[in-house]
């Protein structure tokens, strides 16, 4: 029998400040740059988490979570479940402690991300999306041993993600809204928790692809929901089949809602970011920018968290052409 999970508890500012000190020197304080798009409004700023050493925000949460494991837990090796970015984060952090790492990788994960996980020392076990999603709920996968690091439903992982929120407020005190992609919800909850504690008037919104939007369905229903029309797309780093009840509990009072973005809007946002900021964003990284540019978030200032840039360049060129 698995051990019962600890109850969900709020991410406190002291947790976030402690995480920032803990991961200092491992992660970058990423720049916040204004997007000079072709219209005067909305005013959009890009929080460039794609510039992290693994080109994804996931390093923040993974570094904090692995650092807080006991020596005994780390000695067993660590494992996680990922479409690519969380796996890179946990592998990078595990390598720093000299411990083994296994990643149960969703079989639709891009080869680029799988190869980068391998180069960081991770053992890769591929599995279908449904099996991986079930394993994230059960926190177990047949044949994989070690200490599990959940890629989003983990207090310490979320506290590491929340350091992004501290940086946003310090660099742009007048921000009116912040938007981040929703996969499992750990990025959005982390950023929202840090900002809500210091600037409660700032709107915190998620962004999801039209092919996988359980958070939007959950906010509409007022309860966690499954997204029945789920299908895989190039936005592999965001959009799940359901919103876990524990993550819904974390979101309440922290997040104001989630916006659904079309795949065409996401492609256009990828192109705008590349043309105007000379930045490469993967699908999930461009989702928040697409939401901000849609006009549904007001005039701004809006901060869009560009969560990652791990995309094959040939695929990127094909999508934005």
Order of helices and strands: HEEHHEHEHEHEHHEHEHHEHHEH
- Number-wise, the strands total 10
* Stretches with pLDDT under 50, minimum 5 residues: none
The percent of residues in helical segments reads 40-55%
Number of folding domains? 2
Give me the number of helical elements.
14
Strands across the major sheet, in which order? 1-2-10-7-8-9
Amino- and carboxy-terminal Cα gap: 51 Å
Beta fraction: 15-25%
**Per CATH, what is the topology of the largest domain?**
Rossmann fold
The biggest sheet, with number of strands, parallel, antiparallel or mixed sense and barrel status, is: 6 strands, mixed
Using the alpha-carbon principal axes, give the shape. Answer: globular
Just name the CATH architecture of the largest domain.
Answer: 3-Layer(aba) Sandwich
Query: How large is the radius of gyration?
Result: 18 Å
Provide the structure class.
alpha/beta
For the residues shown, what is the average pLDDT?
95
Write a structural description:
It is a single chain. With 321 residues, this protein is α/β, with parallel strands linked by helices. The chain folds into two domains: 13-56 and 156-320, 3-Layer(aba) Sandwich (Rossmann fold); 59-152, Rossmann fold (3-Layer(aba) Sandwich), CATH 3.40.50.1100. The chain is built from 14 helices and ten strands. The strands form two sheets. The protein has a six-stranded mixed beta sheet, sandwiched between helices. A four-stranded parallel beta sheet has the order 5-4-3-6. Strand 7, helix 9 (186-198) and strand 8 (203-209) form a beta-alpha-beta unit. Helix 2 packs parallel to helix 4 (85-97), helix 2 (58-67) crosses helix 7 (155-161) and helix 7 packs across helix 9 (186-198). The radius of gyration is 18 Å and the shape is globular. The chain starts with 12 loop residues before the first helix and ends with a helix.
């Amino acid at each position: 029998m698995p051990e019962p999970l600890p109850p969900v508890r709020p991410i406190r500012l002291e947790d976030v400040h402690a995480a920032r000190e803990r991961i200092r020197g491992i992660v970058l304080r990423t720049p916040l740059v204004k997007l000079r798009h072709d219209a005067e409004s909305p005013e959009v700023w890009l929080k460039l988490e794609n510039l992290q050493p693994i080109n994804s925000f996931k390093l923040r949460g993974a570094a904090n979570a692995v650092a807080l494991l006991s020596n005994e837990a780390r000695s067993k090796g660590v494992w996680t479940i990922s479409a690519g970015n969380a796996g890179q984060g946990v592998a990078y952090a595990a390598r720093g402690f000299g411990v083994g790492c296994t990643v149960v990788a969703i079989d639709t994960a891009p080869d680029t991300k799988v190869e980068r996980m391998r180069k960081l020392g991770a053992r890769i076990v591929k599995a279908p999306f449904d099996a991986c999603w079930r394993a994230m709920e059960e926190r177990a996968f047949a044949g994989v041993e070690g200490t599990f690091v959940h890629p989003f439903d983990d207090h310490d992982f979320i506290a590491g993600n929340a350091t992004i929120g501290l940086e946003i407020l310090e660099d742009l005190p007048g921000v009116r809204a912040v938007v981040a992609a929703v996969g499992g919800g750990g990025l959005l909850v982390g950023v929202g928790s840090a900002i809500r504690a210091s600037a409660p008037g700032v709107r915190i919104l998620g962004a999801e692809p039209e092919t996988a939007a359980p958070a939007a369905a959950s906010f509409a229903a007022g309860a966690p929901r499954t997204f029945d029309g789920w299908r895989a797309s190039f936005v592999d780093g965001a959009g799940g089949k359901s919103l876990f009840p524990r993550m819904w509990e974390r979101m309440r009072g922290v997040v104001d809602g989630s916006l659904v973005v079309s795949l065409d809007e996401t492609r256009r946002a990828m192109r705008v970011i590349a043309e105007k900021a000379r930045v490469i964003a993967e699908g999930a990284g461009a989702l928040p920018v697409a939401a901000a540019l849609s006009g549904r978030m007001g005039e701004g200032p809006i901060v869009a968290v560009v969560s990652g840039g791990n995309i094959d360049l040939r695929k990127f060129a094909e999508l934005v052409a």
